[in-house]
């Protein structure tokens, strides 16, 4: 297809247009080999194992056992989402008949697994209720909690509305629930602290901790280790934040700030200003 034809069909603004997957061909031997291996890998999956959890939710007997890893946790079904994306892209790009047949089978199995209410998942709907209601001692709440906490620190600009100037020096964030009742969290931040102001990191970490407290009322204590990116055993600073102390210092009920974004931002601003 010529540029002019493509331009007239797709180009509406500022010279931006797209190509369909089957319109792009990589002729390099390395790329061709990678694509061949990827297709073979996708075909190697057992479709019945991928959909086993979905059938269980609708009280249908699985035709095979679930895969290990994610598929035996509270977020089972997660793998199939990634698989469907990759397989659909593979079919769109190559038109591979075998992979297309596997996709069609999986979609049919998912349709058979869907509840009358419309709910379709490899884990029961009650787990969403547990997360929304902060059900204590819920293992799914623990898992989602870890993910939520890590994302708040890793994507702090989206949560704190603060332009933290050293954000680009953060190389790794990990969070772990440290108590059976989920009240204590330990987060480790690895960063390049050379020529950086630890005080700024402290303010930023406190802001992020406030967001975590607001989003999860069960968390009472957050411990944050600021570690050297070149040696994670070298802790540059150890910070501990208590829900009750922050509520006292800023005269707020953190749980209530979930619905009061203006007040929440006021607290975050005070922290940034050093109050």
Q: Which terms would index this structure?
A:
alpha+beta; disordered N terminus; four-stranded mixed β-sheet; 275 residues; single chain
How would you summarize this macromolecular structure in one to three sentences?
The longest helix is centred in the C-terminal third of the chain and has 18 residues, at 198-215. The chain has helices spanning 3-10, 29-43, 47-50, 52-57, 78-94, 97-113, 126-132, 139-154, 156-160, 198-215, 243-250, 261-272; strands at residues 170-177, 184-191, 221-228, 231-242.
Biggest sheet layout: 4 strands, mixed
Oligomer: single chain
Number of strands: 4
Shape: globular
What would you say this structure looks like, in words?
- This protein has 275 residues and is of the alpha+beta class.
- Helices cover 48% and strands 13% of the residues.
- The protein has twelve helices and four strands, in the order αααααααααββαββαα.
- It has helices spanning 3-10, 29-43, 47-50, 52-57, 78-94, 97-113, 126-132, 139-154, 156-160, 198-215, 243-250, 261-272; strands spanning 170-177, 184-191, 221-228, 231-242.
- It has a four-stranded mixed beta sheet with strand order 1-2-3-4.
- Helix 5 runs antiparallel to helix 6, helix 8 packs antiparallel against helix 10 and helix 10 (198-215) packs antiparallel against helix 12.
- The N and C termini lie far apart (62 Å).
- The relative contact order is 0.07.
Helices, strands, pairings?
Blueprint: H1 3-10, H2 29-43, H3 47-50, H4 52-57, H5 78-94, H6 97-113, H7 126-132, H8 139-154, H9 156-160, E1 170-177, E2 184-191, H10 198-215, E3 221-228, E4 231-242, H11 243-250, H12 261-272
Helix pairs in contact: 5-6, 8-10, 10-12
